[in-house]
Amino acid sequence: MKGGSFSQWKAAAGLLFCVMVFASAERPVFTNHFLVELHKGGEEEARQVAGEHGFGVRKLPFTEGLYHFYHNGLAKAKRRHSLHHRQQLERDPRVKMALQQEGFNRKKRGYRDLNEIDINMNDPLFTKQWYLINTGQADGTPGLDLNVAEAWELGYTGKGVTIGIMDDGIDYLHPDLASNYNAEASYDFSSNDPYPYPRYTDDWFNSHGTRCAGEVSAAANNNICGVGVAYNSKVAGIRMLDQPFMTDIIEASSISHMPQLIDIYSASWGPTDNGKTVDGPRELTLQAMADGVNKVKSFLLP
């Protein structure tokens, strides 16, 4: 809601989601992230308030006067409000509102256990990428692919475009991604630092973002792995999935990160698909999306 107050757009978005979202019967989960609004003052005032109460702080780029406070001394997810920390903030005369963020789930799209996939991970050759150029590999139908060969011949290879991979991080040291990695446009919202490197596990669960990045921006003609659909594009890592629960602040911050540098945001994840849950973006994420659309519109106007 451009020009509206926090309470106005929150109320409007809340009315919309009364129709869209079914209330969960489970008890809510609370995180170590807080949405904070000050009575007055800017970023310097916010940093001072956060420091005095043991919080880190980030300004939310898509709105004025709202800040993301995070406390590394708190559990990332628990069933009860952190009353002590919230009350500390609420009692501060400089703080107008402090809202502890509830946690909710986001699931990676297309992920399957590696044991269910019959693939040799040590030899992902270009000729195996049937979705790029299908010559009938694995008894497939020749020509049933993404038709990228024709696009490449016309010169459309992603050059000059940066794609932001919103996921569990990307392995920007991988030799097939390193040359196309855009460090300036990258950020880790799970650890609050500029290095969105994945937290690898024994089952490679946190390789999802790296695989998404490879599908898009893996370099061509370097004798390594396969080829990305847009192999001359730049790729930015936005690490935001590797935590117990998603929050509205993290989702909104991720989708609005560096719009002056990122041309396309890739999000291969979403709410839990269990036949019972009807879910979607929360209030801050809706505002971030609207803000992004308005900025793009302003760029296009003469």
From TrEMBL:
Molecular function, one GO term: serine-type endopeptidase activity
UniProt cross-references to CDD domains, sorted A to Z: Peptidases_S8_Protein_convertases_Kexins_Furin-like
Signal sequence interval, chain numbering: 1-25
Location of the Peptidase S8 pro-domain domain: 33-109
SUPFAM superfamilies to which the protein is assigned, alphabetical: Protease propeptides/inhibitors, Subtilisin-like
An annotated GO cellular component: extracellular space
Entry function: Serine endopeptidase which is involved in the processing of hormone and other protein precursors at sites comprised of pairs of basic amino acid residues. Responsible for the release of glucagon from proglucagon in pancreatic A cells.
Stated name of the protein: Proprotein convertase 2
